[in-house]
Every structure is written in structure tokens, then in C-alpha cells.
Amino acid sequence: MAKRVFFSFDYQDVADFRANVVRQSWRAKPDREAAGFFDASIWESARKQGTTALKRLINGAIDGTSVTCVLVGSDTYLRPWVRYELLLSFYLGKGLLAVHVNSIRDKNREVKPLGPNPLEYVGVTYSDTGLTATLWEKKADKWIEYGEIGNGPSFQTGGVAQKYWGKGFNLSNFFPVYDWIAHDGYINFASWVD
5: Cβ–Cβ under 8 A, 6 or more apart, which residues? Predict the structure, then answer.
């Protein structure tokens, strides 16, 4: 069964045509089931909304998905809304993955070096009992508590495995990263989000 996927991305990668190569790859397949996913992104319709309205739209869009895929361009890791979408997805217990798009030829037929993985710039720490967690983001090489989700940076976990107690992790420790070209995303994307 096809998964509903929320795509998180830097709008510059849409303007350069890279993000839509992934998001619209289903069009060359017989149907959405064959593609393995539905695109639940809301960015185009939400760009001109205010902060509160945009958060509400993102929250509703992510809530209806099972997986969030961050499309990694050169500056994606710096985008505040990308960080919000990744940490909200983690907080809600959604699956996450990162897919590099800089190896896709842009509108000028050029490729770029791979950008930094945004999952390395957001993270979580667990209390000594594992019953609470705190969300973090990395800014200018410093980790800062992230309070934009829920009632603040910390929340109840309901319990996590003992190996996580009292430790901190960036989210790249938990979720995979792929390159759309090198790992043949057109063929394999459905299995990545399954």
C-alpha cells in the first residue's frame, strides 16, 4: 500500500527543479500505488501564510502522513521550517529519511556537491530514566533547546530503551540517508518509505 509522505525541502530546490524530480517521480509510473507514495506537502499553498497559520498547515499535513522525507540541497539544513518539520515528525513518532537532491541536474543541467544532512542539525536527549526527552537544534556549532513544538522543548516519552537513557543523539543516528541518483531513487523510493 502506498505511503503518505510529507516532503520537507528548501524552496530554492523547487525553483532549481531538483525537489520536484523526487516529488513528481510518481507521474512516470502507472499510478500512485506503483509509485509507493502520495505527496502530502503543503508548501506551495502555504508560502504566503503567517507563522501561526503555516504551523497549523504543517501540523495537519504531517499528522496525516506516516513518513517525512527531507530533500537535501545545499542550504536545506539552515531552513527553520525544515527543522520544525523534522522535529515535529520525530515528536509525533513518524518515520524519517533524508534524500540528497544535489546530484539531480537542475534547470541549467548542472549538479552540485552534496549538502549537509539536516538530520545532523536537530536532535534529542533523554533523561536518566528515559521517561522524558528534550528536542534540540544546532545553530552556529551550539546545541540549543528547541521549544517550538508542544509545550516546550521537553516531553514525556512513555519510555525508551535503556540504551538511550541519559544520552543525546542527532536524528541522523536513527534515520537513513540516500542519494536520489547514486541510490536510484526512481526505482527504490517506494522501498525507502515503506
Answer: 37, 38, 39, 40, 65, 66, 67, 68, 69, 193
